[in-house]
Amino acid sequence: MAITEPGTDQTGTRAGWAATAAVLEEVDAPLRLQEVAIDAPRENEVLVRMRGVGICHTDVSAAHGLIPLPLPAVLGHEGAGVVEAVGPGVDSLAEGDHVALSFDHCRDCPQCSGGHPAYCQLFAPLNYFGERMDGSVTMRRGQEEVHGNWFGQSSFATHAIASVNNAVKVPADLPIELLGPLGCGFQTGAGSVLNVLGAKSGEGIIVFGLGAVMAANAVGCDPIIGVDLNPQRLALATDLGATYTINPKETDDLLWRVQELAAPGLHYSFDAVGAAPVIRQALESLRSPGHCVTVGFQGLENEIIVDQGHLLLGRRLSGVVEGDADPQTFIPRLIELYRDGKFPFDRLVQKFPFEQINEAIAAANAGSVVKPVLVFD
Q1: Residue 90 main-chain phi, psi, to 5 deg
Q2: pTM score
Q3: Per-residue pLDDT tens digits for 161-171
Q4: How many CB atoms are located within 10 Å of the residue 35 CB?
Q5: What's the pLDDT score for residue 300?
Q6: Which residues of the chain have pLDDT under 70?
């Protein structure tokens, strides 16, 4: 998996760096490790040697065709590593810097300049289209284009091209291979609680999917009710601060159980599942007024039905992308919580060698691992 310095092919064209990537050839196919040539970083870009990358449900959804993406492609958007090279105009990062990678954004549109880059006007072309804004790709396989630039990184590879906007410098004394999920999965859960809900000490929350228990505990929410079908995950939720846990398979009436534990309902609810019945339960678990956020993704067309009466009583239902966070400021905030012992995200991680990427995805799908992280030699 060693990278080689940039060179030229037989036509004299700059060939880029040779690296190994997990390539998606067709929808629902296993990822295949293949050699690719990665571009030299262009203006405001950096080349990052990956040390670790988390597997996110969004990667899996794209591999299943739920998010349209031109193929062949390289996924992966929770990368972390060391800057190997910088492009023209880059002065905020240097070779050797440790970085965690997050979503890309323009930093110029009203949403970005207003502190909400997760809703960047260019979010789709910068993150989902598999190419730069000018239509060029960041990697090739011989003469064939391979669509990278997934979330501005495509970090299921030994190296990735990122921009100065989505590469966040992190302290070098931290375990860099574990920091990638701070750029998406952990950021989404924590940002939903801290940024969107604005949860405070003494306020109650119910979490469907356990994606936000740590953040709720960090700010002193009480009670915290964790809901999941997996007994091992529920036990972990208790260790991480959940006051109560509920396994829907073990109760005839989940909402009655919620009322029993926290009448007249919770201030907040968080859904990381995305299934219509779960979103409805999350909304119905609220007191009046109350606020439910949903981050789970079940496809671009996923109809949900709720009773208007629940909303008219002052309840809100909000969809949230990336925790409505600015990675450049929010990732350092999560790191400080981690250092203070209030956000022990490393307890959710299980490491897999990069070569076992398909096994790691299977573990994520089965729910046997909360956050698989691929590590590199």
Answers
A1: -90, 115
A2: 0.94
A3: 999 999 999 99
A4: 13
A5: 80
A6: 1-15
